[in-house]
Every structure is written in C-alpha cells, then in structure tokens.
Amino acid sequence: MKTLVLTLAVTSLFACKTTKEVVKTEESPMQEESATIRTLGTVHLQSQGCDVVIEVEENGVKKTFFPFGIEEKFKVEGLRLKFVYTLSRAPQPKDCKCDHVVVLSDVSAVR
Fold first, then answer.
1. pLDDT at residue 41 is higher than 80
2. CB neighbours (10 Å) of residue 84?
3. What is the total count of domains within the chain?
4. 6, 42, 81, 84: most buried by Cβ count inside 10 Å?
C-alpha cells in the first residue's frame, strides 16, 4: 500500500511538468548606435598628478577622466572635446587623482 501511494505521488510530480517559452530577440546595429551619447569635456594638462585629464560635467556633477591612449593632437590645455567614452580596467597612473580611467572614441575638437 505504501509503495502504491509513493509510486502515484512520484508519477504525479513528474507528470506535472511545465514548459517554458524562450523568446530570443536580436538587436540591430542601428539600435546600438542610436544609444551612443557624446560627452563634452575640457582638457587640462599636468593636473591632479596626471599628465592629462578631461573635466566633464554629468548630471550637474563634475568628474575628471584620465583618457587612456589619447592622441597627441588632443593634448592641448583648455581644448574642448566631444567624445564617446567607455570605462577602462587599466589602473590609474601613480599619484593621479581622477574619478575614472577611460578609453575615448569618436573624438573631435569643439570650436
């Protein structure tokens, strides 16, 4: 009798399977590009212990970025730049007091 009840219980548990529907969506490259936001900043040389930093203001908060691998032509004191950045995992240079180390792309000078 116990085995019959146990067999029925186990069978009913396995019989009550639910199926899951997986929906896979693909984003087009155009959607990614439309989400890119360009940032405006000012270049400062020999500031905060760094060779070069870019000062930006995001949502009313001033931040300083150390631009990893910035081109020499953009290393001009007071130059205003428009750029897209991603946070870098590179370590901050010794004695450099900035908020983030970043990698720049799509950089242009603002006149």
1. yes
2. 14
3. 1
4. 81
Q: Which two tokens stand for residue 72?
A: 């020499």
Q: Distance between CA 17 and CA 42 in Å, rounded?
A: 60
* Domain CATH code at residue 94: 2.40.50.500
For residue 23, tell me if it sits in a domain: no
Residues paired with residue 61 on neighbouring β-strands, in sequence order: 58
User: How does pLDDT run across 8-21, given as a tens digit for each residue?
Assistant: 666 665 665 555 45
How far apart CA 20 and CA 49 sit, in angstroms, is 55
What's the alpha-carbon Rg for the chain, to the nearest Å?
27
What distance in Å separates the CA atoms of residue 28 and residue 87, rounded to the nearest whole number?
A: 24
pLDDT at 32: 46
Rounded to two decimals, the pTM is 0.65
| Residue 82 clears pLDDT 50, i.e. is over it | yes
